[in-house]
Design a protein that fits this description.
This protein is 40% helix and 22% strand. The chain is built from ten helices and ten strands. The chain has helices spanning 43-50, 72-78, 94-104, 109-122, 138-150, 168-185, 196-202, 220-227, 233-241, 252-262; strands spanning 5-14, 17-27, 32-36, 58-63, 66-67, 79-82, 156-160, 188-192, 205-210, 213-218. It binds adenosine-5'-triphosphate.
């Protein structure tokens, strides 16, 4: 069966700095797959390579058998993407934001209105669709971004740190939506998160990245069992790298959390 994501010997450098180093990884169709690691591990670079936002330097990536190198337009049609940075427009209403994406992704004109209704329903924002997005809470903004990413009915949903900076209730609500959509639509989901307990609960398999390299790959249960009795995914990471997960660069996890917290409300 064709893999949803097939990454082979992927490498990417910013000048002399190696961000992704010989990464080989397959994600199966229908899987919820977590890419985990501290700041600077190379997760966002990997995601930007597979969603065609960065050009490949070395290695190959195929999405459902389509090469990102030669079939970039087809790959984009297969993908929904929620980036780390906010991607919604505060001066538009929630509904207008989703309509804008529907146009951008060529959802046929006569289907647009029904599709927008459908995704706003999925993320529970129908009642608030006429409010300006600048009045939304952080959790509502993230759910609106999910609706945008889903409006072209992607086979693969890619989420880069979708819940960092949100409070536990808002995080839970975003994850519940993702899990439900995956169940209901058989979508493949690739996500990055700093929240190990969530990765543990949601992901069928995870890859631990550290300094651009793959350090461990497997189901959370397998990885934890191999790291010792009672081990958590944090322990698994320490076991494979000798470092704690929040020992990354740029001030580590707390600085990213702070960044997202300030970005929580638009306007
Ligand atoms: N545009 C850029 N120019 C130079 N270096 C970059 C650039 N983008 C990323 N890097 C560097 O490449 C490495 C990998 O960064 P990347 O953003 O992929 O990591 P990450 O695992 O996603 O971390 P984070 O959670 O902070 O986004 C880091 O050392 C980072 O500083």
């Amino acid at each position: 069966m064709t893999a949803a994501i097939d990454i082979r010997a992927l490498g990417y450098s910013f000048g002399s700095h190696v961000a992704v180093d010989d990464l080989t990884l397959e994600v199966e169709a229908g899987e919820c797959f977590g890419l985990l690691g501290p700041n600077g591990a190379g997760k966002t670079t990997t995601i930007r390579l597979l969603n065609t936002l960065l050009p490949l330097q070395s290695g190959e990536v195929e999405i459902f058998g389509r090469s990102v190198r030669t079939d970039a337009m087809l790959v984009r049609r297969l993908l929904g993407y929620v980036p780390q940075q906010l991607s919604i427009e505060g001066a538009l209403t929630g509904r207008e934001n989703v309509e804008w994406f529907a146009r951008l992704f060529d959802v046929p004109r006569r289907e647009r209105s029904a599709r927008v209704d459908e995704v706003l329903e999925m993320v529970d924002l129908r009642a608030d669709e006429s409010r300006l997005a600048s009045t939304y809470s952080g959790g509502m903004v993230r759910r609106l971004e999910l609706a945008q990413a889903l409006v072209n009915r992607p086979a693969l949903l890619v989420l880069d740190e979708p819940t960092v900076g949100l409070d536990p209730v808002a995080r839970d609500s975003v994850w519940q939506r993702v899990a439900q959509m995956q169940r209901d639509h058989g979508m493949t989901v690739l996500l990055t998160t700093h929240y190990m307990e969530e990765a543990d609960e949601l992901c069928d398999r995870v890859a631990l990245m550290h300094r651009g390299r793959l350090r461990a790959l497997g189901s959370p249960t397998e990885l934890k069992a191999a790291a010792g009795t009672g081990a958590s995914l944090e322990d698994v990471f320490r076991h494979h790298t000798g470092e704690a997960l929040d020992d990354g660069e740029k001030g580590g996890l707390s600085s990213v959390r702070a960044t997202r917290r300030t970005a929580r409300r638009l306007g």
